[in-house]
Design brief:
218 residues, alpha+beta, 23% helix, 31% strand, globular
């Protein structure tokens, strides 16, 4: 069993190392790329198919065929919860697109991430660049729960587990995979994320907390 590198607390609380914008970078994706959330099968949450906010069109996120995120759950019927789940999925996919394209200037990255979450994610993604790696395989996201907060219902907490047991670090030069763990529990990660709805109707992630091997995911 293999896992990707967990986003460290130091990265999550880091001061601005890289300034992020929502401007588009060079498109380095290839013909084998697929649109994240499209054709994901029955396992993909209904949130991925929810109608986009009329105020802001969601950017298209492209991932290679060997980099797959599966989002389980959703479909509660509550439009606010569905919107939070949808944009939470967008955030996860935006990080992986940045890893794949080797660019932190992909439109989706700055679209779904802001504040400490954006700064921490930039440090985390940069680690993949520095190590000359990407990842391959499938990560399963499950037990996703949304708590909507605020009088205007413009804040939310999204918690979920990820199973990285079928995801592998891949060396970009050699193509070899690595990162095996001895204890299967180390492939399970519990996340608590905070989101805020901006003036364009986008649920942006502002803070991320994670714990590997958490009992909540076992």
């Amino acid at each position: 069993m293999v896992n990707r590198r967990l986003m460290p607390a130091a990265a999550l609380a880091a001061s601005a190392v890289l300034l992020l914008t929502a401007c588009g970078g060079e498109d380095k994706s290839g013909e084998d790329d697929r649109i994240a959330g499209a054709g994901g099968g029955a396992e993909t949450s209904a949130a991925a198919d929810a109608n986009s906010s009329p105020e802001a069109e969601r950017p298209t996120v492209k991932l290679p065929k060997d980099m797959r995120n599966v989002f389980e759950g959703g479909g509660s019927g509550d439009p606010v919860e569905e919107a939070v789940l949808r944009d939470g999925e967008g955030r996860v996919n935006s990080l992986d697109e940045a890893i794949h394209t080797r660019s932190l200037e992909r439109p989706a990255f700055g679209f779904y991430n802001t504040g400490e979450a954006a700064r921490g994610a930039a440090v985390w993604v940069q680690g993949f660049y520095d190590d000359g790696i990407t990842w391959t395989g499938t990560v399963r996201y499950y037990d996703r729960k949304v708590t909507v907060e605020g009088k205007k219902k413009d804040k939310a907490v999204l918690s979920y587990c990820s199973d990285e047991s079928k995801a592998y670090n891949k060396d970009l030069k050699t193509g070899k995979t690595s990162g095996e763990v001895e204890n299967p529990v180390d492939s399970l990660v519990f996340y608590t994320t905070k989101l805020a709805k901006n003036d364009k109707g986008v649920w942006q992630t502002t803070d991320v907390y994670s714990k590997r091997g958490a009992s909540q995911c076992q």
